[in-house]
Amino acid sequence: MSLTRREFIKKTVIGGVAVYMVPLASKPAQSNHYIYPDDAAGWSDNQTINYRLDAISKVTGQKLYARDFRASDFQDWPKEQWHGYILRVTKADRPFKGLNIKTILGEHQPQKVITAKDLNKKNIKLPGFFGSDMLLDTNQTASYLGHAVAILLFKDYESYRQAKIRLQFNEKSILYGKPEPIQKHDPYVTFRYIRYTDGEEEKFSNYKDGLFFPEFVNHKPLWPEVTNPNGSLSERGMHYVQEINKEFKNPEWMVFAEKFESQIIEPMMLEAENGLMWYNAKKGALHCVMSIQDPTEFEEMAIHMIKQSSALKGLKSLYVHSGFIGGGFGAKDHSIFPYYMVAAMLFAKGHPVRIAYDRYEQFQAGLKRHPYQMHHQIAINKKTHQFEGVISNMEMDGGGRANFTPVVAIVSIGAIQGAHYYPRSDVQVTANKSRNVDAGSMRGFGSVQAMATLDMLINEAADKMKMNSIALRKKNVLQLGDANNQGAVPAGTARYLELLERAEKHPIWVNKDDNKIKYEQQHPNEKFGVGFSMLSKNYGTGAVAPHAGIHITRDGHIELDIEFIEMGQGAHTSQAVVCKRFLGQYANTVRMGVAHAWKPLNLYMTQIPWFMEQSHQDKMKADPRWTPMVNMPSSASDSAFFQSEATIEASRILYRHGLWPAALHIWRDLYPADVMQGTPFREEDAVWQDGYLTLRNFKPLPFKMLAMVAHQQGLVTGVLVHSFNRWAWVEADFKINGTKETYFLDAVALQYGDFASKDKKKLMKNNGYHLLDRIDVRYPATKMNDTSATYFAPCANLVELSVHQHTGVIKVHKIHSILDCGKTIVPQIVEGQMEGGAIMGLGHVLHEYLPPFEEGPGNGTWNLNRYHIPKASDVPVWHFTNEILPPLSPHERSKGIAEVVMLPIVSAVQEGIYQAIGYRFRDFPITKEKILDVLYPH
Predict the structure, then answer these.
(1) Residues 472/924, Cβ–Cβ less than 8 Å
(2) Domains contained in the chain, number
(3) Residue 30 pLDDT level (bands cut at 50, 70, 90)
(4) Are residues 491 and 558 in the same domain?
């Protein structure tokens, strides 16, 4: 596989190891493109989009993932590939005593059995994020079901296959001691958000006053008992907790209280986790082919894991072969799997080694959505129907390793209020450790559990108050300037009322009573119902740091480099489209996942940004190479809003200092001096039309001509940028060509055209770029870390469904979605997200279920024969409709919507079932068996 300079990108140095990004080549062409070039050729004509960049490759089976590659596909790799299989315990109530595999395997013995003792001898440890005990040692009891005890390495596929047939589901392969009491643990974390207002005055909030924490006694949180409105932080906080509880007894308020329970959910990504690694000892080069959401984290963690061990001392370079991943839904974000691959590689004796989960293994070992138990209370004023307060106490199960459980916990209490305003709130969550399989950052991130169930209680309250549920919501939605339950004011314009008004006028809602009568007359064995819900989900993490790199070639091609990963969400296509605003056409080439290809910017960070003190930021920002955070993971609905900002700002600079001066040069050559003299030339007056830059009556100039002249004149033809967002964008001033300009960036490097002068070429001394020093920078205050979230996108769902009284089968007839996503980049991709999100929500509320503990996925027997995901017959394939609110302005920022589009369907369906059969289910999923138990109680 031969690579050009731009296709083979030296990225950075981590711990003395040079890191490189190499695209996973398109196998049919043996080219160095992510997509077979002929497949991508017709995706657009640079002015209109015909289909996604990867569409043809997807439907013809030519879109390739890490799982499609073997050692034989790579030039210069050994062709003899080893295969790994991970053995896991299925019991967590007795000690592991050893393996019993020799007799079982017979002639199919592994080349190497890696155990905890092998890891300990070579000091091979998991990265700290994942905890300890990579492999369970003998005489230890597993802290969770599915804990790995050994990695078996086989010299060829047939040996591996035969061994796996004999070992998988074979309880005799692992020896156990006698049963013992289940281990008990303190929770991972407990968080509590308290806010109390008296009229217009906010007396206490966590944003204003700060967070405090309980002690753990008998593995339960014990909150401070001393209360004092003028005392310490905890005394003041607990005083207002006491006040809220007293006021919930106000006879002028109605209090609605219910308990809810949500289940363990499997992310069910298309491509199960897998990896392929080879260490070239002669060159000290480690090659990795991985299916991961965040190559950046993997690179850093893997190098440090290897460096601290004694297993491999000659590592000089790491080559990450990166491409598309076949879905993730968060489950490939900080997955532990890649580090088992690293361990296997360290014992593979120079052979390429591959581990690829089948679906049973993915169920047993992959990250899950957290199960929750929740008790919600809402107080509503009897006269005004205003929400007076919310109290919620939630417990979540994080399984045996913490992973992102603490973050999911705090997001769930930060998101719980949804689109509504509560002047008083006391919401807490405890994240417990258990013997369940690990849970992590799956799509929904605590909101589908907490927010959707509180919204169910709002529907119930409206019903008991004999109110229209949309009317009740209209009285209580967040207005511009209202604070959330942390005391922070969300950014942007709240359009909740607009969504509610559209829903209220939709035929599904307007005709719901008449349609119920008609349907039930025509279908006497079925009951009909309509449900509604509107939820608002935050996007972002509070520390997002996107890069972007844009280059134009002499022949007029736009090449875009971004660090975001394509997971099916459409970022590959949408980021190409984002370039059009300033460059007049879409990017021709988009390289994804180039998370460390930004060496010319020379950026570094010093602290974890979420815990940084303002004094440290104020001190460090004087260094133009310092930033609060260097890289951005591919998570949290980040691409449309955060990645786009970097792409837009890079293209703005390229236009302003490359294409615009090229246009002026051409026009001045075309027209006499007396025509040009006195004519105002303002870049903002120029307009792109059909790929031509136009300005008043001057000759329209095609993009290719501008690109060629930009190179000839040595103008800016390449831009690398970095930005930072902490619930607000950084702003910095840069001097470019003698002019002071402000951008939402904190680092900029420029590349000049091929025929630039010697003086300009001398400026490009930093890895081929001219690195600019920012003049001044204004980072968002570190206090913004206390806001939990300020960026939100709302979505509403109307659902028509029926319940068969004799079979319990629930049939969803219609789904209508209403969404505010800001400026839509590619409408068809947004519509696809809305439909896919709704189907995923249907799975959560109606179908998908994994039991906890020994009967659950940790026992290794779960697959799609037992786990029901929605099929075409379960969804209204031809009756999905949607409305996308038009942007408030042509250049309104896009919003992150990948998570919110799966949320309101959950509470809408639960309400629709109630409207059909008169019973409210509060534990999920709502199955036909549960329906029949209610209709025909034993």
Answers:
(1) no
(2) 3
(3) very low
(4) no
